[in-house]
Amino acid sequence: MKKLLILTASLLCTGNAWAMTPSNEPIQPILPAKITAPEKVELGKKLFFDPRLSRSGFISCNSCHNLSMGGSDNLQTSIGHNWQQGPINSPTVLNSSMNLAQFWDGRAATLKEQAAGPISNPGEMAFTHNLAVDTLRSIPQYREAFKQVYKVDKITIDEVTDAIAEFENSLVTPNSRFDRWLLGDQDAITQTELQGYKLFKDIGCTACHNGPAVGGNSFQKMGLVEAYKTDNPAEGVAGLTGKDADRFKFKVPTLRNVELTYPYFHDGAYWKLEESVDVMARLQLGRQLSGEDIDKITAFLKTLTGEQPSFTLPILPPSNNDTPRPKPFG
Fold it and tell me: Is the whole model's pTM more than 0.90, yes or no?
């Protein structure tokens, strides 16, 4: 009967939430990706893994958003062209389609806009849009693929970023143990994990970490009760607006797959999930949690790990004599 209930719930999926999700819960299950343009997703997958979109010919989107590592790189800050240290922790690409905006400061409104940024950033992929497009145009298989998918004779950065965004839209992680619990499988999580979820709600974590992505849908100041101390120069939204009120205001990160996406926070300062729970409770909520309560909340957070994207790695079309040569050391 229990399995029938869960199956029925999955079949009754409508709108933005599962039909049988308890209405009083602040977190909703993740829906499986709804792919309407599979040919764009496949092309975007190749581009996501293609390091030739970088000046070095070595860095791809997957370098900083590694799909084998929770969609991040598990580094405090990412490594850019010529071994440059990135300015901020790389957020996961998984479930990023659920974000109200992209990047920690929200400077990109869409995934398509975000995809254009790293390619031309001198501290990341260090290319230009024109050179990246020239590289793709030099490869006959890419020219043919773009013509088939986008009906264009000449590739532009618009089609490139659109395809990457379509692929990233497919990178969702449904069917976590917590999602199964929400859908009625009472045995999907343990009593300790359930107690952790109750604490998570009771102390106020769900004020910011809510919805299907358990975050990603608001901007909040880091250090509401107690100031957050860091050497990282990032100012958050203030870097865009110039307003002091926006200093240290960052997009609330998703907690989906959080056990995989260490180190934590915009500066990547904390490697242990337990420590990040303690810091958030003190700085954002003014709560000093016991070690036992921290362990319970941590146990709950680990139930948010969903099914990771699974697909065959793309075989990239080869360069030819006309393809610009990579410059990995210049």
Answer: yes
